[in-house]
Design brief:
With about 290 residues, the protein is of the alpha/beta class. It has one domain: Rossmann fold. Helix content is about 40%, strand content about 20%.
Length: about 290
């Protein structure tokens, strides 16, 4: 297995990633390439290698990376999550990967998890280089991501907070921030971060509330029908409290063929347990093998 740290630029920010290349490739041989996209405030050393290594074993070249402002990547503001900026990062990652001599630029795939499970369909909808996309435990509407978990009073409080933060940014140039678990307001997320942070301190970030405002406006569902005739697979978790399965049901209904929805009887973060990594990765590998 070839595995090396790589760097490329995204709108002026130096992005750090890792390139995984299968062993035994012949001189001049080119394989399909897959870009892996993380979730809300995720860093590439967490979760992504588990999938990249499985894609590698199946014969694909794989690229993981940190979004600008996270992990090893530079950025104008640490912790900033602006969906369309992250889409630019993904598209620039695709460009970097297609330039690698081991990669067939006409056989490019995209895989994303959690918020990356929103980004993969969006990117595939606007970038025809993506010939097959697999997204898991994500959704198609950023408003649903932040609002469905909250009750009416909590929704009102969030909108008031965002309005005040916007005024502060306009008048002073500065806003406020919260941690990922507070912004997402998901019990499953809070439990996951409490377990993961001691082992992955790089995961800790203050997320500007501006990120929540821009997330509310983010709608992959509006472009998912543009993916066809390229292929889309969605893998949802029935007991997910953060990215509720209804979001993927709506997304797959809007998409055109070829498409497939897989529903697993698990919570949002159970998909990262070894047995469910194996299940979800195998679904993705089957899809990529068929369509790349």
């Amino acid at each position: 297995m070839g595995h090396k740290v790589v760097h490329f630029f995204s709108e002026g920010s130096k992005i750090e990633g890792e390139l995984f290349t299968p062993e035994g490739m012949r001189a001049g041989e080119r394989r399909p390439g897959i870009v892996l996209c993380h979730g809300y405030s995720g860093v590439r050393e967490l979760i992504l290698p588990d999938y990249a290594k499985r894609f590698l074993a199946a014969g694909f070249v794989a690229l993981t990376f940190d979004y600008r402002g996270f992990g090893g990547s530079e950025g104008p503001e640490k912790g900033r999550i602006i969906p369309l900026e992250q889409i630019d990062d993904i598209r620039n990652a695709l460009t970097f990967l297609e330039l690698q001599p081991e990669v067939d630029p006409d056989r490019m795939g995209l895989w994303g998890t959690s918020f990356g499970g929103f980004h993969a369909p969006y990117t595939a909808g606007v970038d025809t280089r993506v010939k097959a996309a697999v997204a898991q435990v994500g959704g198609g509407n950023g408003e649903s991501l932040l609002m469905d978990i909250r009750n009416e009073a909590e929704r009102k409080a969030l909108l008031e907070l965002l309005a005040e933060d916007r005024k502060s940014r306009v008048l002073t140039g500065k806003g406020t921030a919260g941690d990922t678990a507070t912004i997402l307001a998901s019990p499953q997320t809070r439990e996951f971060f409490e377990m993961a942070l001691p082992h992955y301190p790089n995961l800790k970030s203050d997320i500007p509330w501006e990120s929540a405002e821009k997330t509310l406006q983010y709608r992959p569902i509006d472009v998912v029908d543009r993916i066809a005739p390229r292929a889309l697979m969605l893998i949802g978790a029935v007991d997910d409290d953060l990215c509720k399965i209804e979001g993927y049901r709506e997304l797959i209904a809007r998409a055109k063929e070829p498409k497939k929805l897989v529903e697993l009887p698990i919570t949002h973060y159970q998909i990262y347990q070894p047995e469910w990594v194996e299940v979800s990765a195998n679904h993705a590998i089957e899809w990529f093998t068929k369509y790349l």
